[in-house]
Amino acid sequence: MKENKISKELEKKITIELKDLSKKISKHNELYHKYDKPIISDYEFDKLIERNNYLEKKYPHLILDYSPNKNIGSDTLEKFKKIKHKEPMLSLGNAFNDNDIYEFIKRTKKYLNYPNQNLIFSCEPKIDGLSINLTYEYGKLIRACTRGDGYIGEDVTDNIKTINDIPINFKSKNYPDFIEIRGEVFLEKNDFLILNNSLNEQKKFSNPRNAAAGSIRQLNNTITKSRPLKFIAHGIGGSSVKFSNIKQLYDKMETWGIITNNYNEIIEDIESLKEYYKKINSLRSKFPYDIDGIVYKINDIELQNRLSFVGKNPRWAIAYKFKSLKVTTKILKIDIQVGRTGSITPVARLEPVNIGGVNVSNATLHNFDEINQKDIREKDIVEIERAGDVIPHVLKVIEKNKKREKKFLVPKNCPVCGSKLLHDKDEAVLRCNNYYNCEAQLIEKIIHFVSKKALNIEGFAEKQIRFFWKLKFIKNASDIFLIKKYESKILNLDGWGEKSYKNLIDNINNSKKVDLQRFLFSLGIRYIGEINSLTLATHFLSIENFLRNAKNKKNLEDIDGLGPKVINSLVEYLNIKSNQDEIKKLLNFCEVNNYKKINTKSKFNNKFVIFTGKLLVMSREEAKNKAILLGAKISTSVNTKTDYLIYGEKPGSKLKKAKELKIKTISENEWIKMI
User: Fold this and answer.
1) Is the separation of the CB atoms in 24 and 18 below 8 Å?
2) What is the pTM of this model?
């Protein structure tokens, strides 16, 4: 961007205004986000941002090091302790049509090896609220925390105790010694309107869910108490007592004083599932609270335990989301984003619009072919869609701008580093292959490293990373752990004080102990997402074993679930010296925990196991997962490294080869007895 030539007098005047704007924006950000006490309206705040952005765009050479567009937001108050859930509190997978439900049932039956048996489902509306985990010991509420990242949540016990729907002590005496009750905290629609009408304009909430979340995260629990929050339970986590099915569980909960959904139904066939969806969808507007779909859960809890989880979702439940919401708005500009792995994605910058309570100003255009096919141009009025938690995307052009802008040209070079873009045929995307020098990719890798599903360094958000990058405090992920050497410089920056700096350092230190699968995910290796990180963790068990063996393709080829693209990407990454050096630096600061779900007393622990033939009692997938939980390493081909071959009907050549190599062979029935 060219600099506008201006006089020294005008330059001084603009610099003073930018400094003033920065201080005001920082102050109001803190009042709003940190203390929930804004003193100006959203409109007034937006005008400050708009003026700042205008000046920065017109005079880029005058942008401050502590510009609001680079600076971090207000620091998080140390008001809530972090609590680790006894059992993971993970999110549901989504279905958006009947076919998704058919596939879910098909997958479930296949996993359980139930080709002819009917599955019984517990069905209920999906409340759009804040997920809460309640821990009761000997019938007394001792702790309440948010879901957080699924493994660690925020301790909000004092605030939860103000909700009348949640008993401090169970009403009946027939209760477990220990149990985690899970459900949603929410505001009914009418209560939300009353609450919003009582608030100043700048403090109003955009939707009931945000109002519930904001109410729970109050420092002063008298505010929480003043708001008519409700609670409905939808399941449990850990428990000292086993329950046979959800209906039995809900009946017990009711005797304890825990409210469950009165629209819950037990359904045994697919057609009835469809009818239930239609019924609840038709009643959607009449519900006293917001719902965004239906939850289908396997009623039998023993089957739930068998099904377990895949990635971040339970295999035994799915959320059938209601139809997506569509709105129209104007495309102001089309930008190009460079992702962590170099992928080039066009993004539409929109005239802000509200979709189902969420303010949207950006929408993905997916790829350049889509822009051309739909003939999307700047200043056009378009229809956008947001389905569930999916990033909004542009569906079609509704009204072409009278003075049509030129067609968007596909870039030939990376907009950040200038490298020539290459067409990735496998993924039908353009990609910048300057992986280790492109500034955009390097920053995105650090952002990925600190994200919730990786090291989860709270308070180290994207704005903060970009801010420290600009100041040259960080160049890669390992530099985060050396940020202390810039203490004096940070404390001299506007918006920073002893407390905010201490919070930052504490959050960094708290991230140093990390599970193996999270650490592998945090490295940002192409194709190594959550699931593949978990696959690698269950196979190698420790970071030392991973680094020692994963550089060699031969050691990866027998790992079930890893395809050639994944293996090649991983081997390439691990054999680049700069990556090796970075991992070594990270391990100087981080303590990487071994993969934990291992029965070390099992004879299958650390053994290579192969399944072959048709299994009758359980599916191949379930059998493999059982073996992994016993510490086994799953292989797909028989070789000298194989320790056990477990066979079902018609085992074929693998059984023959195993016998030739004198490998221990076990029938399915023998296997069942052994586990």
Assistant:
1) no
2) 0.56
